[in-house]
TrEMBL record:
The lineage of its organism: Bacteria, Bacillati, Actinomycetota, Actinomycetes, Propionibacteriales. InterPro entries: HotDog_dom_sf (IPR029069). It comes from the Bacteria. This is Acyl-CoA thioesterase FadM. It comes from Nocardioides marmoribigeumensis. Gene3D superfamilies: Hotdog Thioesterase.
Amino acid sequence: MHVTHPTYEQLVELPACVEQPVPTAFEDANGHLNVRHYVGIASEGLDESLIGQGIPKMWPAQGHACFSAEHHLTYLAELRTGDRMSARVRLLGRSERAAHALVYLLDESHQRLSFVMEEIFLHIDMETRRTAPWPEDVAAALDQRVEEDGRLPWEPDVSGSLHLR
């Protein structure tokens, strides 16, 4: 299956999260962002993007959390030390206890898409540490965001390997 990714110009229309340069500490022996940091930065971007849907960074203190369940990762262009980067998020869908998102890492220095992380994440009741239905207000906010993102004029570049259950 050939996947067509959105362009940099399309992606910069989405709100920017975790804008920062690639730090020297994240560099590997190849002189670029180490593979493990792509996922960490994308995950931080997803977390930051969900604040507006009622999921604060300190949600566990309120008895809730989001746990990652599945990922599909696509590396397209290296990010080198000092390159400016940002994360952009598109929500694709929600079920009773899960949500599906695409997180894009943009190389702002070279105006290109560097990395795509497709993720299924789950709502967790921290008392039981098991999946639980989304709180009503969060579910409504996620649904609204999914609807808004669904109106974007480009198709999501899903892997076909992740699905909401």
